[in-house]
Design a protein that fits this description.
With about 170 residues, this protein is mostly helical. The protein has helices at about 5-25, 30-50, 55-60, 70-80, 80-90, 120-125, 140-145, 150-165, and strands spanning about 90, 100. Helix 1 (about 5-25) packs antiparallel against helix 7, helix 1 (about 5-25) packs across helix 8 (about 150-165) and helix 4 packs across helix 5. The structure holds iron/sulfur cluster (2 copies).
């Protein structure tokens, strides 16, 4: 389960969500390379402070997108055919993406460990994407993630500081 300190951060993120959405327009004016570099640096800083094993909120609130390769990998772990695993554990969402059928994910343990950590889907390995590039194209998704991931909320807060003190442009 998520610790109270992080739950409190997420409640604050809900309160700031509308303002954070407006901040997207500010970030869109930042040079793409500078924005990637800054967010990647802040990603490392955030995950020095935030411990996923004290959180697990993404696994409990966002249905993971599942790719063909993930299905093949998981089917091997379950000793079944991919089509069997796909039918048992996945469904199509409103965007026609294949996602985990259950949310919270059935593979998150009470201590926030993923039961299939080594083989977890690419989506789960990549979340919350703040160590990736071309992030200017995903600002809307990143703002949504402030309400899910305490690390992303911190990153956005630090970005605001960087803009206001003129070190990010
Ligand atoms: S597969 Fe593992 S990492 Fe992915 S949502 Fe489920 S518990 Fe979380
Ligand atoms: S990625 Fe974010 S939401 Fe997911 S467990 Fe880690 S801190 Fe929590």
């Amino acid at each position: 389960m998520i610790i109270e300190e992080y739950a409190k951060i997420l409640r604050q993120a809900e309160l700031e969500y509308e303002d954070n959405k407006k901040f997207i327009m500010v970030l869109k004016k930042v040079k793409a390379k500078n924005l990637d570099r800054e967010i990647n640096m802040l990603h490392d800083r955030a995950f020095e402070e935030i411990d996923c094993l004290k959180c697990g909120n993404c696994c409990r609130t966002v249905p993971a997108i599942i790719q063909k390769k993930d299905i093949e990998t998981m089917a091997k772990r379950f000793h079944c055919r991919p089509i069997v695993w796909e039918k048992e554990y996945t469904t199509l969402d409103e965007d026609d993406d294949r996602v985990m059928a259950q949310c919270p994910c059935p593979f998150i343990a009470d201590d926030n460990y993923c039961m299939y950590y080594e083989d977890k889907p690419k989506y789960c390995r990549d979340y919350p994407y703040t160590d990736k590039t071309r992030l200017r194209n995903y600002l809307r998704e990143t703002m949504e993630n402030t309400k899910v991931c305490p690390a992303v909320y911190k990153i956005i807060g630090w970005l605001k500081e960087a803009i206001s003190n003129g070190t990010l442009y």
